[in-house]
Structure of Methyltransferase type 11 domain-containing protein:
Amino acid sequence: MLLTIAPNSHPKTWQYTNSTNLQFFPHPSKIKTQPSIIIPKAYDNGDNNSIESTAGKIKRKVLSKEGRTKFNILPDREFYAYPKFVTHVDDRFISNLTNLYRKCLRPEFEILDLMSSWVSHLPQEVKYKRVVGHGLNAQELAKNPRLDYFFVKDLNKDQKLEFENCSFDAVLCTVSVQYLQQPEKVFAEVFRVLKPGGVFIVSFSNRLFYEKAISAWRDSTGYGRVQLVVQYFQCVEGFTQSEVIRRLPSGADLENKSPLSSIMQLIGLLSASSDPFYAVVAYRNFKPV
């Protein structure tokens, strides 16, 4: 099925849609011709222990049923129905992330920014070939100046990405991986839409919407969360060995901080000098030289 954009798209008409009639919207400031976007075939072959995509397969499940649960069980689209024009991490984290993007992403790249928002962390001085954004609130995405197109979709309801195989040179996921209830399937889809040698960069800190994060993330430490994301990559056949990047506040012991300490920091009973920076990076099939 070929998807197209209505030429007179207007913010008031942006709606949540299911995967069979998902709409891609051009950013209001960048109206241009819509590239061909094709819905891929479903990759679930009926075997829960071997879920195949058109370009790879999930070798094993990482999370238990309990590990995927959230305190707030309402659909995520309801939680994000109203825009949250806030900055989720501090300036030092953003600087570390932008420098990582500056190192890994080239101007000719086509980029998919998953679970994005109104803020871009891409280096301002670099113009990329195409940046497609995804999120749960159209108003937030419409304010992101770096997006050429965007679409609204709940990845906890439907993990398929409506793009052809090998569509992107890079996929990004910033401070949002903690909300994925089916990360194995999402990572398999990312693998499918990446070009060979394409990079997937997953970054996060210790901040979160506590009631919407999965149990396996809430109950873990900084070190444990890094290992969890590493396992997400390892469970999909074809990703290279993950590279882990840590930038911790000097003197802070955040790697093994207890979940209780993290909760106290979130509600203001404890403070940290700055947000810890974690990133896990892997490539489809091989790392380009």
Observations:
- Residues 91-104 form the longest helix (14 residues).
